[in-house]
Amino acid sequence: MAMAGLALVVVLSIFLIERFDVAAADHERAIVQRGVVEVRKELDAVVATQVDWDKAIASLDNKFDPAWADFNLGNYLYTFNGFSHVYVIDGAARPIYAAANGERTTIADYAPFGPIVDRLVPQIRQAEVARGPIKPRPGKNNILIPPIQANAFAKVGDRYYVVTATLVQPDFGKSLPKGPRAPITIAAKPVDAAMLKAFSDRYLLEDTRLVGPGFASDERQQVALRGLDSTPLAALSWIPAKPGTLLRQRIQVPLLAGLLLMALLAMSVVRRGATIVQELIASEQRSKHLAYHDLLTQLPNRALLFDRLRALLAVRDTGAIALAVICVDLDRFKEVNDTLGHHAGDLLIQAVAARLRTACPDAALIARLGGDEFVILHEVTGPDVLDALPAKVIATISEQVGTEYGWLEVGCSLGVAVVDHPGVEPSEALRWADLALYRSKEAGRNRVTRFEPEMDEVLRSRLSLETDLRRAVQDGALHMVYQPQVDHAGRITGAEALLRWNHPERGAVPPGVFVPLAEETGVILALGEFVLRRVFSETHAWQRARVAINISAVQLRTQGFAALVTRLAAEAGVDPSRYEIEVTETALLGKDVQIAGNVDALKRLGFSIALDDFGTGYSSLAVLQRFAIDRIKIDRSFVSALENVGETGALVDSMLKLARAMNLGVIAEGVEAEAQKQRLVKCGCTHFQGHLTGYPLPVDAMAQLLGEAQSQLRQKRVNAGRG
Ligand code: C2E
Ligand code: MG
Ligand code: MG
User: What is the model's pTM?
Assistant: First the structure.
């Protein structure tokens, strides 16, 4: 628009400038036309003053006086007004006087002017007749009559003249013409250079020339000079003033500079506008991208996944292609996040995203739902998609990832749902894959599970289990069993309190099932409080045995947990030093201030802390030191592997060395065979828990056992005393 505006300004100014010139030319031509008339009138007036005079009647009519004519006409008109030819003709049109260039000459000179004079004379005579006889007005001293004149532009010989014919008349009437027709004076003034110059100067014309009637020029203007019969005899030609052109020349440079400047300005505005538009488009695309992509991995997010899933399922509804929805969840990702921090977790997620991209075909859609959850969408084009693709995903993700935090290792669990019938909602398809994933997680790491319709059943039963668990906790329908912990000599030194739930319909539900369920659903806090109350109340009377209580990570992360334990211990009147809190390694990970606060408070109160399932999680010397752990519980996976896997012995050995070096107590759990126990004893293990040394027992049985043990001890002392 700016450019169009500029172009309009340019065109308009060119047009205006041209209009200026045209208007000026019109005006100049009118002035010249008027000027020509004016000049002829002036010449008439000059001659009139010489012949409208009583003296002229006396000297030319009454009695012809050549000397007077010489002086007042021939010489006078030539000298002062440039009339080169002057003649006088009498009443009968006969020439009686002739002068050329101020000197009297022969009458014969008159001949060339004869034809033009012959055409002027009738006009004069006509006016003379119309005037009638002159009536003098004696006593009145003013001019009687106006001059009678005729004037023509004429070509005589090869020169042009203005020819003026003037009737000789009295002015005051002292002399009157003797006959009816007075003489006529003819004066001719050549249109010569001097006359043209005077004209030029007077009307400010440039280079005025007399040109032939056929003359034409683009650069020059002209006004025709016509003869008596109106035919153009010649023309006055001059170079017209062109104010527009002059203006243009004057303003040309500044105008062009201005235009250039405006053009540059317009261009820069246009360019700036274009960049702004481009930026707008880009930012729109960016925000679109943001709305549909995950910031960390740049993978499509949940919104885009749902869009695509909906579209693909719609296509599926019309065709025969099956669609695979694969949920991927990292194993042990939380541990990395907790131990090494969120940045390490982010790096790992990015690495996993990149690996997923290489593992999946280009046609697959890979989305990140958040946390460590990913979803892959792919058409089931062959068996590869269902078998090879998941295997490849597990293989690529399981490879170690090199980061600035060292080598990280994660696994992943996969759930696959195949949608091969129409009418399935996106959320339904995802739920199926999620259910299958849940199965994989339950079964252990690096597994793939294909969704089967029964799983839906399982989920439903899980939901009902959750409801039942809540009610059971409320009703106190759970109970504790106690598993003995013994020293190398088989003496019971303590017991681990283990939770049991006898479901009215399902029977015994293992804690490995309902404890994680309680942790996921938040029931664990109420459940944990129930355990503490129950254990304290059941065991407060025990004299020597130390009681180990399992505490979930969720409890440990809860603000005020230590205070709760303190209150419950006080209410039950128990001695904290006889209780051991069992926490898993992973529960102590991370920089959660609540965890440290709770553990420190519990330690200050006198509780001891045992690290449960030692060796299976991420644990470090720093954790052992930071929390002033009292005892480690070597996980039963190491114990059971002692006999078959060669390196396990060395591993257990080093765990015990570490414990000794850090002055920690050690207990091995899951000891089932005497050989295991012997092996552990050889490594320096002092305490044992497992089926070999005692199954978990109901509280009464355990108390009885402890009583036995204690009475045995008493018996021994008695014997020793006797001895
Ligand atoms: P855990 O703390 O490692 O407990 C030891 C588990 O090993 C118990 O399983 C116990 O019965 C079992 N066990 C003991 N000796 C042997 C053996 O020789 N061979 C084998 N195969 N197993 C043995 P249980 O009672 O099923 O508990 C499983 C897990 O549930 C516990 O592992 C603990 O993490 C959790 N749990 C149990 N009671 C509670 C509780 O009151 N609170 C919390 N937060 N978690 C609990
Ligand atoms: Mg335990
Ligand atoms: Mg354990």
Answer: 0.50
In the chain, residues under CATH classification 3.20.20.450 are 475-631+686-714
- pLDDT of 620 strictly over 90: no
Among 416, 412, 377, 375, which residue's Cα sits nearest to residue 397? Answer: 412
Q: Token pair of 24, please?
A: 């000026």
CATH 3.30.450 positions along the chain are 52-190
Q: Count CB-CB contacts under 10 A for residue 298.
A: 13
For ligand 1, residues with CB inside 6 Å are 483, 498-499, 510-512, 515, 531, 550-552, 582, 612-613, 636, 669-672, 689-691, 696
Q: Residue 373 forms beta bridges with which residues? A: 329, 370
CA 450/CA 163 separation, integer angstroms: 127
390/399 Cα distance (integer angstroms): 15
Give the mean model confidence (pLDDT) for residues 167-189.
Answer: 92
Give pLDDT tens digits for 237-276.
Answer: 999 988 888 888 888 888 788 888 888 988 898 899 999 9
Cα 701 to middle of ligand 1, angstroms: 18
Sheet holding 206-211, edge to edge: 206-211, 232-239, 221-226
Out of 473, 483, 485, 498, give the residue to mutate to test ligand 1, the one with the largest number of ligand atoms within 8 Å of its CB: 498
CATH match for 52-190 among 3.30.70, 1.10.287, 3.30.200, 3.30.450: 3.30.450
Q: Which ligand is nearest to the CA of 587?
A: 1
Q: How far apart are the CA of 347 and the centre of ligand 1, in A? A: 35
Strand residues in 521-663 grouped as ranges (E): 546-550, 579-584, 608-614, 631-634
**CA-wise closest residue to 548 among 626, 607, 488:** 607
What tokens does 695 get? 């199954």
Q: Where does 302-451 sit in CATH, by number?
A: 3.30.70.270
CATH architecture of 475-631+686-714: Alpha-Beta Barrel (3.20)
- What rounded mean pLDDT belongs to the chain? 89
